[in-house]
Each structure stands twice: as structure tokens, then as C-alpha cells.
Amino acid sequence: MIATKGYAAQSPLTDLTPWDFNRRDVGPHDVQFDILYCGVCHSDLHQIRNEWFEGIFPMVPGHEIVGKVAKVGEHVKNFKVGDIVGTGCMVDSCRECQNCKDGLEQYCENGNIQTYNNVNKYTDGLPTYGGYSKTIVVNEDFVLHISDKLDLASTAPLLCAGITTYSPLRHWKVGKGHKLAVLGLGGLGHMAVKFGVAFGAEVTVLSTSPSKKEAAKKLGAHNFIVTTDAQQVQAAKGSFDFILDTVSASHDFPLYLSLLKTDGIHICVGAPTEPNEIPAHAIIGGRKSVAGSGIGGIKETQEMLDFCAENNIVSDIEIIDIKDISSAYERMLKGDVRYRFVIDIATL
Ligand code: NAP
Ligand code: ZN
Ligand code: ZN
User: For residue 91, how far is its CA from the centre of ligand 3 (angstroms)?
Assistant: First the structure.
């Protein structure tokens, strides 16, 4: 076993504190990398607070992980010591089901293994621990190459916020000629704006925070609508081809569905705890669809990272000391982050 350190929640009621634990030894197909930065996703907060399901504690969160390879197993061909790499939300899957064969490991029919708050049934049967820690051991198939063209700290959020917005925009071929609304301007939302603009769509931000207007324009958004302003909302009725919904709390679906054109699609990536009510009448008129999308497969994640390197796209971040993680969560809950906190693991 490899002894390491992290920050863990010992229960859903406690703040994160330092915790010593072990990683598995580096197997023939494993890559061990020392973590340099880890992004702070709203999913971390949902999970340490047991908002989605009963979690496994102690829990070391973090699935936007980047670092430098320290050791590789004897059969590893694709990575060498010193490479800059990353890992996102998954560390394993069955590799045998149709979805895995199709590069959709996130929808593995036998269950993918999440980077933390999961048990790795494909290896050691032990709980997985995430990136708020010094080092990690991951099967080579779930490790991504990161270009040295990109600022590393700002690249970390691409591993979740990036792929989670890139994948649905690619799947629904959002681009030139489309009007895309990005609902919620947080970690995921600001990446959706950058990708939407890069793919040629006309991008409108739908936000509850009037103070984000200027910043949204700087991100490249063409329009900004404050969703608490009834007049602005009324003027936007029936105008979007797609809404990419990144909201982390319960919200008014019929209101947002009314902003779609005929045949418009409302794509959910935000994962609030409470169920959302969608009356049939909100989608019957105008033949609208409500869809969902989860992160992205490994091949597509590499494609997204390469696209970002070519197009100089990274996340806008605020680097934090790991000691400040609890106040970062408080600020994230208030929507007070531009647009992703990233932990400098050297502070651990
Ligand atoms: P975040 O940085 O906290 O951003 C969420 C944004 O939603 C906020 O900045 C705020 O934007 C808006 N918002 C918050 N509460 C709202 C409310 N009550 N009504 C309307 N808007 C509200 O969170 P994130 O890290 O981007 O994650 C967003 C969600 O996606 C989370 O639920 C997370 O678990 C989920 N997620 C899903 C996947 C997936 O695979 N599908 C992957 C990663 C994360 P404004 O201030 O602009 O209104
Ligand atoms: Zn995430
Ligand atoms: Zn599978």
C-alpha cells in the first residue's frame, strides 16, 4: 500500500479535515500520479452532505484532478514518469458492455466506478478516494494526457465541468445557426458558454445573478437575461433551440421550457437533490424535449482536452488553500465563485 494524505469528511455533518489513508500499490496497468491541483465541483458538496444518496465515509472528494506521473506499471505503454496527466469522475468500468465498447463508460451497464464515494469492484473491492489528496493510483485507461500548452491549474476543471458541458453540446451538434441558452453561470455554466461560443452558437446566459452580466460578456456570451426579471423573461419566450441547464438547486422548469422554440431541447446536466416537476403541458405545446447528459466517455474527454489545447480554452479559476475548503463551499452555495475554485495541493 502507498501511504498518503488527504482532506476527508468523516461524516455528512462534519467539515473536511486532514486524514491519512492508503492507495493501492501500482499494478501492471496502473499509473500513479502526484496531484498538483484539484477543482471543487458542486457534486463534491452534494456528496459529502449525502444529498444524492448515502455516502461512504470517510469521504475524500475531488474529481477534477491533474498532476505529474510518479510511477507506471510494467505493462503501461501510454504514460511515462514526469508526464502531465489528469483524471475526472471515473476510475474504472467493466469494458465489456455495449456502452463501454462504444466509448460511453459513464453509462457502463455494469456500473462505472466513480473516482470517490464508490467501491472499486473491478480491482481491490475497496472504497475510492478522490483528488483532495497528495497522490492517486488509476488504471491507465482512465488517465488523460494534458498538453503543456495549457495552464495546469485552470485545466483541472475541464475534467468534470469541461467534459460535462462539451459532451451534450457535441451530441446535439449545437453550433452555427443555433440559439443556445446556458442556465446558471457557475463552474459548469461558464464552460458551456466558452464551448457554445467556440462551436459558433449564439449564446445567452440565463442567470439569477444580475452582478454576473459583465463577466458573462467577457466569457463571450452574446446576451444576458436576469431570470428574476419578468420583463426580460417575457421578451425571451420561444426563442432558444437549446437550453443547457446547469442549475444545482430546484428551479421552475415550466418557466424555462417556455423559452424554447418549437422542437427545442432542454438538456439537464445540473443535478439538484429535489425532484423537478415537469407538467406534460409544458412540453406538448411546441413538441419540446427534456433530456439529460452525464459527464462524457474517456475518448471524448481526451478529444475535449485536445480541443481546449488547440483553441486555448481553460476554466476561469480562483486558487485556494485546502484549509479554506469549507468557506469555498459556503461561497459556492451563494453562487459567489468566478467560476471554479481549484485547490493548490501543495498547501496540503
Ligand atoms: P455551481 O458552480 O454552484 O453553479 C451552479 C449555478 O446554478 C450557480 O452559480 C447559479 O448561477 C445557479 N443556481 C444556483 N441555485 C439556483 C436556483 N435555486 N435557481 C436558479 N439558479 C440557481 O455548480 P457546478 O459545479 O457548476 O454544478 C452544477 C450542477 O451540475 C450541480 O448540481 C452538480 O452536481 C451537477 N453536475 C452534473 C454533472 C453531470 O454529469 N451531469 C457533472 C458535474 C456536475 P447564477 O448565479 O447564474 O443563477
Ligand atoms: Zn463534477
Ligand atoms: Zn461497461
Answer: 12
User: Which residues are CB-contacts of 144 (< 8 A; sequence separation ≥ 6)?
Assistant: 85, 86, 87, 88, 159, 298, 301, 302, 305
The rounded distance, in Å, linking the Cα atoms of 267 and 243 is 6
The rounded distance, in Å, linking the Cα atoms of 171 and 56 is 33
- What span, in angstroms and rounded, lies between the C-alpha atoms of 200 and 311? 13
Is 215 a pocket residue for ligand 1 (Cβ < 6 Å)?
Answer: no
> pTM score, two decimals?
0.98
Burial per residue of 143-175, b for 16 or more beta-carbon CB atoms within 10 angstroms, e otherwise: bbebeeebebbbbbbbbbbbbbbbbbbbebebe
Q: Which domains does the chain have, with CATH numbers?
A: 2-160+316-347 (3.90.180.10), 162-292 (3.40.50.720)
pLDDT digits (tens, 9 = 90+) for 176-185: 999 999 999 9
pLDDT in tens, 202-252: 999 999 999 999 999 999 999 999 999 999 999 999 999 999 999 999 999
Å from CA of 53 to ligand 3 middle = 22
Distance from residue 314's CA to the centre of ligand 1 (Å): 18
- What is the per-residue pLDDT across 109-125, written as a single tens digit (0 to 9) for each? 999 999 999 999 999 89
Number of H helices, E strands in the chain: 11, 17
Burial of 334 (0-12, 13-18, 19+ CB in 10 A): exposed
Decide whether any atom of ligand 1 lies within 6 Å of the 127 Cβ: no
Report the candidate in 104, 121, 127, 122 with the shortest Cα–Cα distance to residue 298.
104
